[in-house]
Design brief:
306 residues, alpha/beta, Alpha-Beta Plaits, 12 helices, 14 strands, elongated, binds adenosine-5'-triphosphate, ABC_transporter-like_CS, ABC transporter ATP-binding protein, transport, ATP-binding
Length: 306
């Protein structure tokens, strides 16, 4: 398990990471989310041991991140890190051997990951000759080729086409089933929602949320929505009763009623008197909507300053 404990990193007067604590347990995929400049890459660099913290610590199974621990981590840095003039296959083979695989195992791993990630045909090409998306696939192969115990991936999905996104999603889910701990940052919240066991949201270096996707969604503002085949004017009277709002639905003659969910069964029976009810239930917000709410809310410091 990776444990980030009271981590702080300052650059001059800027606190890029501010007393941040969270964990990435074995077999879990943790999505690391925050606006541009929130401190995600800085946290990941420190977790990988390529940047030292100002204070606080990161440990792997209780051990500080030294060279022996670094060897267990598959890392995809934001600035990427392949040698542009080296051939894809040579580069991956070099990395696999560097991490202790013998020659036949390294070859097998290179074949497997280039095949899985769809770059096997490019194995003899220099990395710099590949499209950006294919370079990204090779980056992912580089993080995976030596069977790491932990994956630290800084925006692994950026620049990938939809097919590669699907392949990579499957790879992460399989790795997680095999017990690998994964921390990945992303601005693609639909993917985070789909893949992650847990989501860590940070803002200005500070932890805002650390919870399961399910819990985060359950805590969001819960409105109800009902769709009924009845004229808007008739549904408006019902809306007035519960302080809701009515709008036209997509289907002909359909009206949508949104309200805070109070007296839901009473509203349903009244709506049934008006016409056929098509849909009825809580409107579960997407992670993207919740993220917008969280990021738009004032910070504790801003609230205090008022
Ligand atoms: N080496 C550095 N020197 C000075 N400031 C830095 C350095 N690295 C990062 N920062 C600053 O620290 C803050 C956090 O940056 P970081 O790259 O960790 O954010 P991020 O959440 O990864 O953002 P993005 O989503 O844009 O990649 C930013 O304000 C950034 O400008």
């Amino acid at each position: 398990m990776l444990k980030i404990n009271q981590l702080t990193k300052t650059f001059g007067s800027l606190k890029a990471v501010n007393e941040l604590s969270f964990e990435v347990p074995d077999g879990e995929i943790v999505g690391f989310v925050g606006s541009n400049g929130a401190g995600k890459s800085t946290t990941m660099r420190i977790s990988m041991g390529v940047l030292s913290p100002t204070s606080g610590s990161v440990t792997w199974n209780g051990q500080p991140i030294d060279r022996s621990v670094q060897r267990l981590f598959g890392y995809m840095p934001e600035e990427r890190g392949l040698y542009p003039k080296m051939k894809v296959g040579e580069q991956l083979n070099y990395l696999a051997r560097l991490h202790g695989l013998d020659a036949p195992s390294a070859k097998q791993a290179v074949d497997f990951w280039t095949e899985t990630l769809g770059v096997k045909k490019r194995i003899n090409d220099e990395v710099q000759k590949l499209s950006l998306g294919n370079q990204q696939r090779v980056q992912l192969a580089a993080a995976l080729v030596f069977s790491p115990e932990m994956l630290i991936l800084d925006e692994p999905f950026s620049g990938l086409d939809p097919v590669a996104v699907e392949v990579m999603s499957e790879v992460l889910l399989e790795q997680s089933k095999a017990g690998i701990a994964t921390l990945f940052s992303s601005h693609q919240l639909d993917l985070v929602e789909r893949l992650c066991d847990r989501v860590v949201i940070i803002r200005e270096g500070q932890l805002i949320t650390n919870d399961t996707v399910q819990n985060i969604k359950a805590q969001g503002t819960h409105e109800f929505q009902l769709s009924v085949l009845a004229p808007e004017a008739e549904v408006a009277a019902l809306a007035d009763r519960v302080g809701g709002q009515v709008s036209a639905g997509e289907a002909t003659g359909e009206s949508l009623l949104r309200w805070d969910g109070s007296d839901s069964q009473g509203v349903l029976s009244s709506a049934l008197q008006l016409g056929q009810v098509q849909n009825f239930g809580p409107l579960v917000p997407t992670l993207t909507e919740l993220f917008r709410e969280v990021v738009a809310a004032p910070t504790a410091e801003e609230t205090e300053a008022k």
